[in-house]
Design brief:
The complex is a heterodimer of chains A (133) and B (182).
Chain A: H1 8-17, H2 25-37, H3 39-55, H4 66-72, H5 82-86, H6 88-110, H7 115-119, H8 128-131
Helix pairs in contact in A: 1-2, 2-3
Chain B: H1 7-15, H2 19-41, H3 43-59, H4 70-88, H5 98-107, H6 113-128, H7 131-142, H8 147-154, H9 158-175
The chains are: A mainly alpha (133), B mainly alpha (182).
């Protein structure tokens, strides 16, 4: 008894693929062997071809107003911040750079990063409150 | 004549808020989506579920990376939404009631009674298959997806697509005996 080059599953897959696309010459030769070894697969492919022709009857016809009905039920319109969300990593990086620059500026001017320096209050004293009286 | 814009360009416009660009994408793909959904859940619910598919797509516009074809991506949303809907109404029959059938007949006067009868018979046969077999039949035989596309859409191996279709066609053969030649 000759040893088969394929399993039944591989044979079925090849037979089904023959419905989708032109097979290579080697695959066509193999398919002929498959059909000789499994005549029921040839019948299966023929039935599938017939059924395929029948079932295309169930394909939906394009609908003229479906798209507008979808637009009518869409959630809130796309908003201005959507592009920002899409580029969130770039926006986050830019925000970090801006924060570092601001802190560097404060440090260079005040020599410290204490809360008073950040808020610009480091040189204001209680006495200053009376200076304007 | 205005050149047909590529899906990618329409996607980019839709992402920046152009609803008409989104509408064009819907127009381009709605028939396939409605076909899949209708095959899975029956025409009675197809319209609502197909709308749900496009709303999901709209919400996920930024997540679509473009490494799959848009038709494949939409097909996957369609099949998953239809399967979820089937899960929700597990105990309800998927074929049409007499009233639903009559409503559909009235809605489409352009079809011959013979064609409508054939479609009813095909839908009824589909409705008797398990949802796993039905999904493969809808994608392969109704919508004409290849074995590899079907495997990709259902995220199962190609061999499983072939074996499910093989078993499904055996069941269908029994249901459709009166209209099959072989």
């Amino acid at each position: 008894m000759s040893q088969k080059k394929y399993t039944e599953e591989e044979a079925r897959l090849l037979a089904h693929r023959s419905l989708d696309e032109p097979l290579s010459t080697a695959e066509q030769v193999l398919l002929t062997e498959v059909f000789d070894d499994f005549p029921e697969l040839r019948e299966e492919v023929e039935r599938l071809e017939e059924m395929s022709q029948l079932f295309t009857q169930l394909r939906a016809e394009p609908s003229a107003d479906f798209a507008q009905r979808v637009i009518g039920v869409l959630p809130a319109p796309l908003v201005w911040y959507r592009p920002l969300i899409k580029r969130w990593s770039a926006v986050a990086a830019a925000a970090c750079v801006a924060l570092l620059l601001a802190l560097s500026f404060i440090y260079i001017n005040s020599g410290t990063l204490e809360t008073e320096a950040i808020l610009g209050l480091e040189e204001i004293w209680v006495e200053d409150a009376y200076a304007f009286e | 004549m205005q050149a047909k814009l590529h899906d990618d360009i329409l996607l980019e416009r839709a992402r920046s808020g152009d609803q008409q660009a989104f509408a064009q994408l819907v127009e381009r793909h709605e028939a396939a989506v409605r076909g899949i959904v209708s095959g899975m859940v029956g025409p009675g619910l197809a319209e609502d579920i197909a709308q749900e598919v496009f709303i999901k797509f709209y919400r996920a516009l930024d997540k679509f990376a473009g490494n799959a074809k848009l038709s494949t991506y939409l097909g996957r949303i369609a099949i998953n939404t239809a399967l979820t809907s089937l899960e929700k109404r597990k105990r309800r029959p998927t074929h049409l009631s007499v009233e639903e059938r009559e409503l559909l007949r009235q809605a489409d006067h352009s079809q011959s009674p013979e064609r409508t009868e054939l479609q009813d018979m095909l839908r009824s046969a589909l409705g008797r298959l398990s949802k796993e077999y039905r999904a493969v039949v809808v994608l392969r035989l109704v919508e004409g997806y290849s074995v590899s596309e079907t495997a990709d859409l259902l995220q199962i191996p190609m061999g499983t697509v072939a074996s499910r279709l093989s078993r499904a066609q055996r069941e269908l053969q029994a249901y459709l005996k009166p209209i099959l030649n072989n």
